[in-house]
Every structure is written in C-alpha cells, then in structure tokens.
Amino acid sequence: MAYSGQCLCGNIKYSFEYDPMMHFQCHCNTCQGVWGTSLSALAMPKHELTTEGEISTHSITGGSGMGMHYYFCSNCGVKVYNEPELLGGMIYIPAGALYNDIEFNPTVELWSGNRPKWMQKAPTIIESFEDNGTVERITELLENLDQRG
Question: What is the fold, at CATH topology level, of the domain defined by 3-141?
C-alpha cells in the first residue's frame, strides 16, 4: 500500500510505499517548542520518501549536539518531516499528516519525564525512555531494516 500526504496549501506532496518503521512520541523541550506539544511521528528511511514541490529547510542543534533539520512548505509553513543527523538517513513524518492512511499507535516514547501533565501515556507504548533512548532506538530501527523491500 502506498501512503501519501501534502501540506495545507498543496504546494508540497509526498508519498512512500512501505509501512513506517516505528511510531513514536517525543516529549523533549525542543519538540514541544517546535510542534507546540509533543511530537507524534512515524520514523522511516529518507530514501523511501518521494516529494514534489519546493521544500524549505531550517536547521538547529538538537539535544544530541548534532543537527536537526526541519523540512517545510515556505508558503503555508507546514512541516513535512524532520531529519536528525544522529540517526543518519532516518526521518520523522508527523503522524497527524497521514491520519486518513495510518492509525497512529506509538510503541516508543522519548523524554517521558517531560510528557505534558495533561497528556496520558498512550496504551500502545512498549518502551518508555527518560532520555532520547538513542542506542535502543537505533537498534530497534536497524532490526527492522531486514523487513523492508
């Protein structure tokens, strides 16, 4: 099954063929500042995403000390995906952007101690990390690579 989405104005369209490798939530201060709340996202290799339209980029230094790059529509401002240098080649697509195609069931949450008080822990969470759980996340993602076409 192919999945697809677009920004609000339709200038950027994107699609990918395979199921995301992981559904997760990040409650770090940076995500809460960028997204206005915790990030609920789908993780996948960047090379699997096809985009149409001109995407703008904004980069910051993430909590790891490495770059975090945000790709967005310069017309409507919608963030299409972000890319942490820490995970070389992996991207995060906001889960809400594909709500018609994918039922979001996060299995991992990061920076769990920063979860907003009003937000309950999702019942589908299997792993909960007080930090970014980097080694564990990378291991989980790499274990899933052999399942890709």
Answer: 2.170.150
Strands (E), 74-130: 79-84, 90-94, 108-110, 127-128
**Unique residue bearing structure tokens 């401002």:** 77
CA atoms within 13 A on the CB side of 104: 19
pTM for the full predicted model: 0.87
> What span, in angstroms and rounded, lies between the C-alpha atoms of 124 and 4?
24
- Report CA-CA distances (Å) from 121 to 17, 33, 49: 29, 20, 29
Does an H or E element contain 135, and which? Answer: helix 134-145
What tokens appear for 80 in the block?
A: 């299409």
pLDDT tens-place string over residues 11-26: 999 999 999 999 999 9
